[in-house]
Design goal:
With 183 residues, this protein is mainly alpha-helical. It has eleven helices and no strands. This is RNA polymerase, sigma-24 subunit, ECF subfamily.
């Protein structure tokens, strides 16, 4: 009965149960979130060993810090909170490895729109979605990292493998392009 209840629970409930030391809730949270998390990490890092380490560190951090979950600043969801933890762990891994783990070419210009881009476009409406799609891939990547993933300029620079100044310039260009497209 308990297993069935956990399978129908949302991720926020599972995080809160994990905070109380509920291993079954943690296992269900892992079962539910690890596939999409691994895909998102692989889009940003081609090194499977780094992805595996980041996954392990992320779920260890979730187990230890579940009690501090109060909602993600970006969207208030447990999924957003999990991604924020993973993105920061990925930045840390890049720093530890001295930038040897490069993002795959597909992370820079994916041939198919990323799921988060489609969701964002759907949430923000056709006009904003169209403006996002018209941005160059490098400008979209900066927006994705800074807005969707909630990374800082420094973290975005590490993940994208470009200097901080380039991130700032691209972010500014993206804001100007979006402003022009929406006015």
């Amino acid at each position: 009965m308990k297993r069935k209840r956990l399978e129908s629970a949302d991720e926020e409930f599972l995080v809160r149960r994990t905070a109380r030391g509920d291993r079954a809730a943690f296992e269900e949270l892992y079962r539910r979130t690890s596939p999409w998390l691994a895909v998102r990490l692989r889009r940003r890092c081609a090194d499977e060993q780094v992805v595996a380490e980041v996954m392990q560190e992320t779920y260890l951090a979730i187990w230890r810090a579940a009690g501090s979950f109060a909602g993600s600043a970006a969207d208030g969801s447990a999924v957003g909170w999990i991604w924020t933890i993973a993105a920061r762990r990925l930045v840390d891994a890049f720093r530890r490895r001295g930038h040897h783990a490069e993002p795959p070419a597909s992370a820079v210009a994916p041939p198919v729109p990323a799921v988060e881009e489609e969701v964002l476009a759907g949430v923000l409406g056709d006009e904003v979605g169209d403006a996002l799609r018209r941005l160059s891939p490098e400008l979209r990547d900066v927006l994705r990292a800074m807005v969707l993933d909630g990374l800082t300029v420094t973290e975005t620079a590490v993940v994208l493998g470009v200097p901080e100044g380039t991130v700032k310039t691209r972010a500014r260009r993206a804001r100007i392009a979006m402003r022009e497209a929406l006015s």
